[in-house]
Fold this sequence. Notes:
By secondary structure, the protein is α+β, with helices and mostly antiparallel strands. Helices cover 15% and strands 35% of the residues. It folds into two domains: 115 residues, no CATH class; 93 residues, Immunoglobulin-like, CATH 2.60.40. It has three helices and twelve strands, in the order H-E-E-E-H-E-E-H-E-E-E-E-E-E-E. The termini are far apart.
Amino acid sequence: MATCTGLSILLTDAFRSVGIPSRIAGTPMWTNMRGNHSWCEVWIDGTWYFTEYYPDKLNQSWFVADAGKADREKPLHWIYATSWKPTGLAFPCVWDTSIRYVHAVNVTDFYIDLYEKQFAEKKLAEDEIILNVVLYRSAGSIDGNDRVSKRISVWKDDKQVDFGYSPSKTDDLNRFLPFVLRKNTAYTFIFPGREGEKMTFSTTTGSGSGEVLKLNQ
């Protein structure tokens, strides 16, 4: 018996013992502040895939949605993978934050891209739609360079139903923050304003997927 970190180290050692390159991956803290997690990645045919200590399928797990909501701007919420090669970045060992000798690479983008791909392939229920959200710094702006990456949460009545991070100015112009919501339902979106104050925007969803909701700070 061990923690997720101990089990991941054991599995990586097992992969390596039979000639399969493997490394530890994980985050020091999910963006929902639920804690840290560790898992394994394996190198197959020139590509890194992830798996866990109860392997079923590659690149599939309960934590994909959590990893896909990582915050690119905050190292506390990055996804890291270990590296033999010095990279200038240390893998965050949450049990001893003074450890700096475990080198790491930032693989956050891989997990965000994977989540968005799997999200796009998700089959919607009859009463569901995908609402794409983007946040601009200036009112009325549609300039891609004016996009800002902030945490946006979606509420129905007094309950949070989902959250995520809006695309930044360096993201592809076709990237949005997607939410699966109910058709023709009232929701409130909460996000930080320019000065850090809480901003809210309420709207009622339509009946067609792919709509874009443009918010302003």
